[in-house]
Amino acid sequence: MKGKFITFEGCEGVGKSTQIRLLQAYMDERGIEYYMTREPGGSSISEQIRAVILDGKNAEMTDECEALLYSASRVQLLSEVIKPRLDAGELVFCDRYVDSSLAYQGYARGLGVEFVERINDYALREFTPDLTVFLDLDPSKAFMRKGGADKTDRLEQSGMSFHEKVYKGYKELSKKYANRYLVIDASGSKMQTHHKIISALKEKGVF
Ligand code: TYD
What we know:
Elements: E1 4-10, H1 16-29, E2 35-38, H2 44-54, H3 63-87, E3 91-95, H4 98-108, H5 113-124, E4 131-136, H6 139-146, H7 160-176, E5 181-185, H8 190-203
Parallel strand pairs: 1-3, 1-4, 2-3, 4-5
Helix pairs in contact: 1-8, 2-3, 3-5, 4-5, 4-7
The structure holds thymidine-5'-diphosphate (TYD).
């Protein structure tokens, strides 16, 4: 039996971590079994790659190098953690996955979504999520809620226009991959968003 693979996506500061925590609490209370991981990271090698990518001192990193490091981190996590668990029939969640690369590196960094798709298809062998929960909130509103960008995080230092491009990228992806995208309006309160996520996942028969 193959398990279910569900990813979370969204721009910086949309409350993704909070929503993942609320979802975990919901599942824990009901005894629903799952495995939660994150990108970039989630395995020892992938966490080391994450540290290189996100290090504010690595300002000279090229966009191509960044995109390849993300896919390298992803393929390691996939082989080591995600695939074996899905093969065992588990419910696996991942905080960010290939769509982050398509939105950030493909659309926002300007590498082109086709190029990023190509390197990821090579790495992942077209391994796509069953469902993608996209927290839909314009980054300008998200940053206001968060109270500004983190100065030690190389990616969060990129300007607002970069984040607007990421957001546009996600909107395109949600149309292109409408069959697996669950677009969740994240402009309301955190509990409103939480309830929307639960209903959407229930509707898809996840639990
Ligand atoms: P993280 O601190 O985990 O951010 P968040 O809480 O927003 O998920 O840092 C992940 C950063 O990496 C985030 O800015 C998005 C970016 N990213 C990419 O640019 N491409 C990718 O493929 C992935 C997985 C993440």
